[in-house]
Amino acid sequence: MVDAILLILREVLEAALIITMLLVMSRKLSIAFNWIVIALALGMLSSWLLACYAYAIADAFDGTGQEWINALLYFSVILSFIVIASIIAPLLFNTPSHVQYLPLTNESIKPYRKLIFCAVFAVGLSLAREVAEIWIYVGGFLHDPNLLQSALIGGAIGVGIGTSLGVITYYLLVFISARAFLNILFVFLVLLCGGLSMQIARQLLQIGILDSATPLWDTSSIINEHSWLGELLYALIGYDSSPNAIQVIFYWVAVMPLLLILLWNGYRRNRTSI
Amino acid sequence: MIFRKFILILLCMSPAISAATVPEFTIEIHDHLFFPSTLVVPADTKVKLIIINKDPTPEEFESYELNREKVIMGGARAVIFIGPLKSGDYPFFGEFNPKTAQGVIRAQH
Amino acid sequence: MKSIRIFLVVLLVAIVTLANFAAAVRGYLGSMEEAERLFNKRLLQQVDLLDYVLPSRYQEYLQRPAPEIFPTPQKNDSSSPQIADLQFQWVSNEGKLLARSAAMPNEIITDLKAGNQFANFNHYRWHVLVAEAANNSGWYLLAERDDQRYRLAESIILQAVSPMVIAIPLIGFVIWWVLGIGLKPVAVLAKEFHAREATDLRPIEHQNMPIELLQLAQSANELLRRLESSFIREQRFSADAAHELRTPIAALNIHCENLLHEVNPVPESAHKLQQGIKRMRYLVEQILLLNKTSPDHFMSQFKPVNLTALTKQVIVSASEALSDKDINIEFDGDECWINGDATALETLINNLLGNAIKYTQKNGHVVLHTWLRGNVVILEVMDNGPGIPVEQRERVFDRFYRLHGDRHDSGTPGCGLGLSIAKQVVDLHQADIRLTQSSFASGLLVTVKFTAGKKGEKTNDI
Prior knowledge:
The complex is a heterotrimer of chains A (274), B (109) and C (462). Chain A has helices at 2-28, 34-52, 54-63, 65-92, 96-101, 109-139, 145-174, 178-206, 228-237, 245-273. Chain A is an all-alpha fold and 274 residues long. Chain A has one domain (2-273). Chain A is globular, with a radius of gyration of 20 Å. Chain B is α+β, with helices and mostly antiparallel strands and 109 residues long. Helices cover 16% and strands 48% of the residues of chain B. Chain B contains one helix and nine strands. A five-stranded mixed sheet of chain B has the order 3-9-8-5-6, with no helix packed on it. In chain B, strands 2-1-4-7 form a four-stranded mixed sheet, with no helix packed on it. In chain B, β1 (24-30) and β2 (33-35) form a beta hairpin. Chain B starts with a helix and ends with a strand. Chain C has three domains: 4-158, 2-Layer Sandwich (Beta-Lactamase), CATH 3.30.450; 211-290; 300-451, 2-Layer Sandwich (Heat Shock Protein 90), CATH 3.30.565. In chain C, a hairpin with a 5-residue loop joins β2 (86-91) and β3. The chains are: A mainly alpha (274), B alpha+beta (109), C alpha+beta (462). The A-B interface holds A 3, 7, 54-55, 58-59, 62-64, 66-67, 82, 133, 136-137, 139-141, 143, 202, 204-215, 220, 224-226, 240-244, 246, 249-250, 253-254, 256-257 and B 1, 4-5, 8-9, 12-13, 15-16, 22, 46, 48, 56-60, 64-65, 67-74, 76-84, 86, 95-99.
């Protein structure tokens, strides 16, 4: 049962975090919540397809299809996060009243459509990858009612804990100011993009496309990935206790555009204020 | 950014293709157990693991120490590259049946 | 926070779920550990059992070339068909296998190191207890299938954990229900406010109100009380002011008339005085009307009113002014009923007709219509006077605004309140007033659109 809890919590926690952050974002910017329904439907459908065609995917590209698909999903999610960040970034440098009343102005409607589209995309694809693993996992127990009961109860507990944490985080974030939240959101996007990018590197290392060198450092003695804290950090920022040089390079390649967006907006703001 | 990433991939791809003589090792999954449960591989060498799942149920090969994670469907086989590893023990387990499916990769000279 | 109820339900269920599941996991882990200890203890007891029998035969077994194989005991119930739950090996101090149960392999399954270990054989993962035999007579290796141990322990613990999971939707439903009951007074209060007429200023009943809402209800009642007393004061003031002002003005008028009769020749200033008094009386009447028809103060109930009959009545009462200027008056229309206040509507028509008469030259034309067009009642007042320029049509509704300032060519007394009052009555009836060009060569057409109402009783015509 604990295995099921850990496995499912790990998948649910990451999805719950992404969904929570984007829901709070759309609330702070007065965007209707309808998009989440589409995103969830997209996620469920695509995860089910991934699970159904798991054999075909695994055999594709000389047995490396799974990694390629995962890398592609990670990559798409990173891209949509970068677009979201580029829309959010100008708001970070605006006056508080501007952020407050921004949703009411006419010119703001167009980028918000792009924002919603990216949010649907990011949530849908994150769910696709994570929920597909849950389908495969639960599917493996279908033949044995005893094990299935244990797995389902574990799964229910995992989903319950993950969702509850998401809900509590949501209400914590709802009660902070829009400006403070946007800052948190941007930091979250930076960390998440970096973490996801490291996952891409790992997928490519796994199929031998990239050559792994020895890990740059090993912090597993401080925070073990097995531990609860390690799991949480993994879900939050893609924590890896012993990353390779390649992974670190990937991390910075993904984080760079976000930092550049931030710097450019800061520069533009300073220039206009003079 | 996309460009940079692809160039990086291409650069790294060339040595992987040329290195055709990667030593291969096979691990079988039987009744949610790994056979052999202790696999000895050469240290400081890139190694190709072939994992064959003889069970009808899926299994996920996972190792925090090796930093690897891959789902292997029932009756299917999967390829995972690991290393070069420093000599030492690297435990791995099947995430779907962690109680039974446990093993260790021992890298030594 | 859009809804208090949803916020509370979602957050409470989340907190309960988190606490409940954390407790379940904690309990599960603790119980599993306890079960593990229990199973290990049971294995140790088996060692004691072996110690009763085997050590005495150590020398005998050492001599044998091949290990003794104990057959699998036959069981009546076939719960574990192939392999017995408990297996063992007996190994000499030198590492030679002395005896084993049937399902055990001939090789020694694990290192000879006292304690609990794991080994894989026969397609299973086994929990192995390695223990030294009594009297220095070798080692026992007792093996139990790990998956069976695990499943047995878990099946006991799941009995305790699964109700916690099943309870969550139930708890959610109960929280939803209980909060619904708890928040009912708020809903009732909101509904009571919503259902009230604008003029209903009775205090709110707060006999059974919870203390959280009592404050709100009491404040609201206090506000309502003050509002009502101010309304009453306002009404009384209007009535008193009307009375108090009309009487001295009437007296002034009589004295002025007397003055005109008594003094001969009549001085010019006496005529001017009479003009001034007339104007003052008109102004006071208009201000009182404006006050009476203001939506904030309007207190009477709407009734069905026959607009056509009312219009005719107003025309009849204006016949003196019409004949003074020899104005040609026309009236046509359907019988129209609207929901409204007869006095206010009379003022409206009177003001519109009065304006038309005032600004039309001698022998001019004034036309009135009341049309019923489906759901809409249209009142039209048209003249062939000078009209109002387009750019001033909105402004004429402002209080005390007068066309061309004070240079009035009509020579009639006016104070710039007529159309303000008309507009106020129109707003009161949620109608629409519009000023356009008349179909005469010049002049103004005033169109008022009401929503048609039900026909009232014949006897209660106006």
